[in-house]
Amino acid sequence: MCFSASASFAAAGVVTVAGVAALRGARKPAHLLLGAIPLFFALHQLAEGMLWLALSREGYAAWGQPAMFTFLIVAKVVWPVWVPLSIRALEEDPARRRALSALLALGVVLTAGLAYGLDAYPMRASIEGNHIRYRLDFPAPFRWTVDILYLLVTVLPPLVSSIRMMRWIGVILLASLVFSKIFFYSYVVSVWCFFAALISAMVVLVVRTGRKSSGAPNGNGR
Question: Least enclosed by CB within 10 Å: which of 22, 52, 125, 217?
Answer without folding.
Answer: 217
